[in-house]
Design goal:
The protein has helices at 27-36, 40-45, 49-53, 55-75, 89-96, 102-122, 135-144, 166-178, 201-210, 235-242, 249-258, 272-280, 292-298; strands spanning 2-6, 82-85, 126-131, 149-156, 159-164, 182-185, 219-221, 228-229, 263-267, 285-289. By secondary structure, it is α/β, with parallel strands linked by helices. It has two domains: 2-121 and 195-298, Malonyl-Coenzyme A Acyl Carrier Protein, domain 2 (3-Layer(aba) Sandwich); 126-185, Alpha-Beta Plaits. A six-stranded mixed β-sheet has the order 8-7-2-1-9-10, sandwiched between helices. It has a four-stranded antiparallel β-sheet with strand order 4-5-3-6. α1 packs antiparallel against α4, α5 (89-96) runs antiparallel to α6 and α7 (135-144) packs across α8. The two termini are 14 Å apart. 53% of the residues are buried.
Length: 299
């Protein structure tokens, strides 16, 4: 059984759309540009790293590239019974199982990106990966930061992301180093999946309340509870909760394995999620599809 997974913000890089130019799936970019009234192709081809770090740009670009990969995977005849996405990638995962139409998902992502940009501007923050420590140790490091840092992503064994104010993340990082951990700053524009995103909640909830969700044709393993969902009535609440709650990605990988998944196919730039799968469930086969050449190898 195959699962498709989609990365979130932080995986973006300049020129990441170039491998797809000239392929039939590149037409998705023009469709999204019309829906969002933005030059999405420029984000995928011309934007530099600082431009892509801005939340309103990173989320649109990452979502667009995920949809390009999804379209190409379908054209190649790939099939999947399970989908999941890391943070932003959860919206693409819902498209992958028919729970959201492309246009509706694009509008939601556009609203989410703007709402989170506003929240990040009002409550500046950052994120950093802590390597080599257990979740309880990382939580203790955040406590030492005085309520300005929180565990935001449990990605894989030995890889926990903390988020908070710049000073809070700095203090939590110092505490982590004192316990033997390694700390790597992330290229993001805010403290996502923490209380600092609460300012985005009302705008996102209005958009979610108006979205025409459908039941899923396969299971979606979601961030907030690491469990499989199918019902149309589930999505709005889950996506709303996701905004300020941690991403339980390690548990999500284990849940996919419990469901009978044997291969995880990552559609997006690089193979960050595939690497997390390797660390968490080494018995699962992994495939990273960042361009059409990769797809030809794995289809």
């Amino acid at each position: 059984m195959d699962a498709v997974v989609f990365p979130g913000q932080g995986s973006q890089r300049p020129g990441m759309g170039a491998p797809w130019v000239g392929t039939p799936s590149w037409a998705v970019v023009g469709e999204l540009s019309e829906i969002l009234a933005r030059d999405v192709a420029s984000l995928l081809l011309d934007a530099d790293a600082p431009t892509l770090q801005a939340t309103r740009n990173a989320q649109v670009a990452g979502f667009a590239l995920g949809l390009v990969g999804l379209d190409a995977a379908r054209r190649a005849g790939l099939h999947w019974e399970v989908a999941a996405g890391h943070s932003l990638g959860e919206y693409t995962a819902l498209v992958a199982v028919g729970a959201l139409a492309v246009a509706d998902a694009a509008r939601l992502v556009g609203e989410r990106a703007e709402a989170m940009q506003e929240a990040a501007d009002a409550s500046p923050g950052t994120m950093a990966a802590v390597l080599g420590l257990e979740p309880g140790d990382v939580a203790a490091c955040c406590d030492e930061a005085g309520g300005e840092a929180w565990p935001a992503n449990d990605n894989a064994p030995g890889q926990i992301v903390v988020a908070g104010t710049h000073e809070g993340v700095r203090r939590a990082g110092e505490a982590a180093r004192s316990k033997g951990g390694k700390v790597l700053p992330l290229s993001v524009g805010g403290a996502f999946h923490t209380p600092l995103m609460a300012g985005a909640q009302e705008r996102l909830d209005r958009a979610l309340g108006a979205a025409p969700f459908a039941g899923a044709e396969g299971a979606v393993v979601t961030n907030v509870d690491a469990d499989a969902h199918h019902a149309a009535s589930d999505w709005s609440g889950l996506l709303s909760s996701q905004l300020c709650l941690p991403v339980r990605w390690r548990e999500s990988i284990l849940r996919m394995e419990e469901l009978g998944v044997t291969r995880v196919i990552e559609l997006g730039p690089g193979a960050v999620l595939a690497g997390m799968v390797k660390r968490t469930a080494p018995g699962l086969s992994r495939a990273g599809v960042a361009g059409p050449d990769d797809l030809a190898e794995w289809a």
